């Protein structure tokens, strides 16, 4: 998430909260109306969680992140950038690339980034990545 997405998410949350209030105010709620209200509340809760996580990261109090797989590394890099208080532009400046390149990396989960670039990003952010490799059954994949 970036600042634009944060503001957009807050605006979406306000609309969901308004929709929930309107649904709650209905006098004649059917089973379908109850399900609709439940769905709107669940979406609002999801948005609140995203906002809370972003605000926590921006607070500067988070200094470690966990991943259950190597593919989670992309999410951790975005979280680390936010926790550092850096914008995508600031990271791009340090890496010597265009801001749009960082936006692309983050929006695609760093799938287009080389291992060398990912190492550059972790170094720029001052992130130490530790991962435990577990040899599993190749047939289970």
Spans of at least 5 consecutive residues whose pLDDT stays below 50 are: none
Strand content: under 5%
Q: Supply the helix-strand structural class.
A: mainly alpha
Percent range of helical residues: 55-70%
- Over the alpha carbons, how many angstroms does the gyration radius reach? 20 Å
Number of domains: 2
- Please count the helical segments: 6
Q: Give the termini separation.
A: 30 Å
Question: What is the N-to-C succession of helices and strands?
Answer: HHHHHH
- Globally, the shape reads extended
| Major sheet summary line | none
β-strand number = 0
Mean pLDDT: 89
Explained architecture:
It is a single chain. With 141 residues, this protein is an all-alpha fold. The protein has helices at residues 3-25, 31-58, 73-84, 88-95, 99-107, 115-125. It folds into two domains: 3-58; 70-125, 434 Repressor (Amino-terminal Domain) (Orthogonal Bundle), CATH 1.10.260. Helix content is 65%, strand content 0%. Helix 2 (31-58) crosses helix 3 and helix 4 (88-95) crosses helix 5.
Summarize the structure.
This protein is mainly α. It contains six helices and no strands. The chain has two domains: 3-58; 70-125, 434 Repressor (Amino-terminal Domain) (Orthogonal Bundle).
Considering the chains and any ligands shown, give keywords for the structure.
141 residues; mainly alpha; 6 helices; extended
Question: How would the blueprint of this fold be written?
Answer:
Layout: H1 3-25, H2 31-58, H3 73-84, H4 88-95, H5 99-107, H6 115-125
């Amino acid at each position: 998430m970036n600042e634009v997405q944060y503001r957009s998410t807050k605006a979406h949350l306000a609309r969901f909260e308004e929709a929930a209030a309107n649904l709650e105010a209905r006098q004649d709620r059917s089973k379908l109306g109850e399900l609709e209200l439940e769905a709107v509340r669940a979406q609002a809760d999801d948005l609140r969680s995203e906002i809370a996580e972003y605000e926590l990261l921006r607070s500067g109090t988070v200094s470690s992140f966990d991943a259950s797989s190597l593919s989670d590394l992309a999410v951790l890099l975005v979280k680390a950038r936010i926790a550092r208080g850096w914008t995508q532009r600031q990271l791009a400046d340090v890496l010597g690339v265009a801001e749009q390149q960082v936006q692309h990396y983050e929006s695609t989960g760093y799938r287009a980034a080389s291992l060398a670039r990912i190492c550059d990003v972790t170094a720029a952010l001052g992130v130490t990545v530790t991962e435990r490799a577990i040899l599993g059954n190749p047939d289970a994949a």
